[in-house]
Design goal:
Elements: H1 3-7, E1 14-15, E2 18-19, H2 28-41, H3 45-59, E3 65-67, H4 69-75, E4 79-84, H5 94-107, E5 112-117, H6 121-133, E6 136-142, H7 143-148, H8 150-158, E7 162-166, H9 173-185, E8 191-193, H10 204-227, E9 233-237, H11 242-248, E10 257-263, H12 276-279, E11 281-285, E12 288-292, H13 317-325, E13 328-333, H14 335-349, H15 355-368, E14 375-380, H16 388-395
Helix pairs in contact: 3-5, 5-6, 5-10, 6-8, 10-11, 14-15
Bound molecules: pyridoxal-5'-phosphate.
Length: 401
């Protein structure tokens, strides 16, 4: 295991000043039990073998790396490659941690999995895990996202999940987390709140990162095998930051530049983007310390991005830490650039990306010109089937982009 991963976070779940677990007293014993169960499971050969079996025979791992030859030629400069998490079962990286969280829930004797979802990918992945393990599933989703990501709502219901619409505040991802926490308080004895990213109180940022580490491990080996070298740059979109931590963790001890791409929405004005590291300040949200976009009253600010899965006014504590240490560079792509990348990857490579992943593609396309002869590996975190109705109804087929 990487020297970095072994030493981060601390036992209390801190990455430098960020992380920890600020919990309401009734949840303290439940999170302690999750920590203890994960400690035991992560050292268990049976758990590791069962997870490997699931990844191979159910998820379809390893996912490949594709050389984006046409897009590289169009952009001129660096060669672009994509780690194809869109080909992971259910169409995104989220299943990597959901199947492991399902195993954890079974080990703890829980009968229900519950979580928030933004784009619906985590909800679909968790509903899939619940079906696989024969558990109940409860997914909280903002009304705005329900309207925007209708195919994923149908998929969750087909998989047997109860979808709870969230109608307060901004009716988006932050409120879905609030709503799920409230519901979890009364059923923590029987349910596991399988948080959908590297956010939340300890141990979730560490645990979800460890479950997503498979992406980075595979990608490093595959890229070496394919090109004989490591990539010069690795990039991923950052909402909470799970797909980014998954791929970054495979290269964190290497001399490889890492770029997290935040959603810059429609402008740099508060409320019109969700670029937490770019514009945020230190604070606390949902029981952990991190960087936060705050309004004038010091509360989490409203956020906007075209990608529902990136629509969060906080970020995983490890990203805030890696920003402060300088090991990872954080940059952004706005709605228009992400849409441009969505159409470009579809048309020139035959891959329709999720709008979330399109942010990383947009950055790579922009950056390619500045790096002739270099290589950029994009974590293509998910496929865009969920987005095609929204995109074509609002932006046609990319005319003028
Ligand atoms: C395809 C895809 N990529 C990325 C994300 C953002 O999550 P994270 O930053 O945890 O990878 C989501 C969230 O729903 C998603 O569906």
């Amino acid at each position: 295991m990487s020297a970095y991963l072994k030493s981060h976070p601390t036992r209390e779940g801190f990455f430098g000043a960020y992380g920890g677990a600020m919990l309401p007293p009734p949840l303290v014993p439940h999170f302690a039990a999750i920590r203890e169960a994960y400690d035991r499971l992560s050292k268990s050969a049976d758990f590791i073998n069962e997870l490997r079996y699931i990844r191979k025979h159910f998820q379809g791992r390893p996912t490949p790396i594709s050389h984006l030859k046409n897009l590289s030629a169009i952009c001129g400069g660096a060669q672009l490659y994509a780690k194809r998490e869109d080909l992971n079962h259910t169409g995104a990286h989220k299943l990597n941690h959901c199947m492991a969280e399902g195993l954890l829930a079974r080990f703890m004797g829980k009968t229900k999995l519950m979580a928030e979802t933004g784009a619906g990918q985590h909800g679909v992945a968790l509903a899939t895990a619940a079906a696989y393990f024969g558990m109940e599933c409860e997914i909280h989703m903002g009304e705005i996202d329900i309207a925007k990501e209708a195919p994923n709502v149908t998929r969750m219901k087909l998989l047997g999940a109860t979808v709870v619409p969230v109608s307060f505040g901004g009716r988006s991802l932050k409120e879905a987390v609030d709503s799920c926490f409230m519901s979890y308080m009364s059923q923590a004895d029987t349910a596991l709140f399988a948080i959908g990213s590297v956010v939340g109180p300890h141990p979730f940022p560490m645990m979800v990162r460890d479950f997503q580490h498979v992406v980075g491990v595979e990608a490093r080996e595959q890229f070496l095998d394919m090109t004989g070298e490591l990539p010069d740059i690795v990039t991923a979109c950052v909402g909470g930051g799970s797909n980014a931590m998954g791929i970054f963790s495979g290269f964190i001890d290497d001399d490889v530049a890492l770029y997290g791409v935040e959603p810059c929405g429609t402008s740099s004005k508060l409320g019109e983007h969700a670029a937490t590291i770019t514009y945020g300040v230190d604070g606390e949200i949902h029981g952990f310390k991190t960087m936060v976009l705050k309004d004038a009253a010091g509360e989490p600010a409203p956020v906007h991005t075209i990608a529902s899965g990136l629509d969060y006014p906080g970020v995983g504590p490890e990203h805030a830490y890696l920003h402060r240490t300088g090991r990872v560079n954080y940059t952004g792509a706005d709605d228009k650039e992400a849409l441009g990348a969505f159409f470009a990857l579809s048309r020139h490579e035959g891959i329709i990306p999720a709008l979330e992943s399109a942010h990383a593609v947009a950055f790579a396309m922009r950056e390619a010109k500045a790096h002739p002869g270099k290589s950029i590996l994009i974590n293509l975190s998910g496929r865009g089937d969920k987005d095609i109705d929204y995109v074509t109804e609002n932006h046609g087929f990319g005319e003028g982009l």
